[in-house]
Description:
Bound molecules: 2'-deoxycytidine-5'-monophosphate
Helix content: 40-55%
CATH class of the largest domain: Alpha Beta
Number of strands: 15
Strand content: 15-25%
CATH topology of the largest domain: Rossmann fold
Distance between the termini: 45 Å
Largest sheet: 7 strands, mixed
Order of helices and strands: EHEHHEEEHHEHEHHEHHEEHEHEHEHEEH
Shape: elongated
Number of helices: 15
Number of domains: 2
Strand order of the largest sheet: 9-15-14-10-13-11-12
Structural class: alpha/beta
Amino acid sequence: MGINVALDGPSGAGKSTIAKKLAAALKYVYVDTGALYRSVAYYVVSQGIDPADSAKVIAALPDIKAELKYIDGSQHVLVNGEDVSDKIRTPEISMAASKVSAVPEVRAFLFDLQRDIAANNDIIMDGRDIGTVVLPNAQVKIFLTASAEERANRRFKELQEKGDPSTYEEVLADINQRDYNDTHRETAPLKKADDAIEVDSTSMTLDETVEHIKGIILSKTGTKQPPKEKPPREKKERKPLLDFSNVEPVKRGKKLNPFRMFFYNFLRILVIGGFKIAYNLKYEGKENVPKDGSNIFASNHRSYVDPVFISLACRTPNSFMAKEELFHTKKFFVWIIKKFGAFPVERGKGDMDAINLSFEKLNMGRNLVIFPEGTRSHDGKVGKIKTGVALIAAVAQCPVIPVGINFEGKLKFRRKVVIRFGKPISPEQLKITTPGAKELKLLRTTVSDAIIELVH
Ligand code: DC
């Protein structure tokens, strides 16, 4: 089986445009299942059958041969050999498709065709019931939404460009009616699969939505993006790792809002109580934790609770670099980690947005927590440390406090957890004179050794 991506959502959310772009970028086959329902609708309407008359629609099914053909990479829909790709895009056929798609026999009629295509190709399939019914085992499931008004707005503009006389109010009423039909039908109603990731595109541009979903697909499937064709290199000049010539060292000593600090510390004390019950929690080297902010904590990474373990020892709120993928998981989890100060970093490349944000947080007087291994270690050994932490520390000129998180095996209720804070590495020790790879590696080793010493 190839890679199956299910993209479901209501009418007008931009599924087909987005799926086409994704398919082109990822070299998948795009399957527009709505076109199949539209082709059935087209046939019945062309035969003068009322699409709401299910008995007549069912009786007509044996006369329909619906096919999907790919010509130059784009999908064409054939009904009994006739290419109806354009004719099925009228408002009349949209509404008729919504009606015929409520008929269970119509759905069953198109089911095998959809399954067969998915079985033999890497596909991105859009529809209403792909994640729930057609491809329940798809590796990636996206549920794409947008407000009805925004969807109507987009569709209205599209129709206007085609010279269609429909008004915005008509388009909105149409969308609302189709939403109602699609979500209230008995068979395979439009519904988010439990394991689908919801993407709300109301305030995203088309390109932003495509990039966002592409990120989800790549992180879920673990596939690399097809390489972009690189323009020929002009000069063999070696560039600096990242350009920090305009970045000023962090101005330390900035105080956070006293009300927030009070609230933060009040909550912190409450949470410490809870954590002491949940774990046999012990802190060592707490005297090494500065009372003020703008410090960098560099820690080994054992569990999703690590940020909390560290924060409970800090009187100033922390911000965290967390891997980008985490921001595509369950909404509630994302909300929680953001509240705790997490912001995304794309690993494996110099993510300048994340680095700039780190400086912003440090300048605000918050601490920055980095897990420089980039991923959790399950066996307790400290993995390879990435250079990012050294780079940020060198430029920010903030003390780095090494942290060792220790517990045996998996984190469990009442497990003994020891958090050790090492002596701060001073900005003087972190200075680099020429920002080259060699000096950075040396700095990285300083940080890495300090962490390793605390893990035992
Ligand atoms: O995505 P679209 O607007 O082209 O879909 C046309 C109609 O077909 C829509 O009203 C819902 C229905 N449909 C469906 O019920 N199941 C699918 N998998 C795809 C579309």
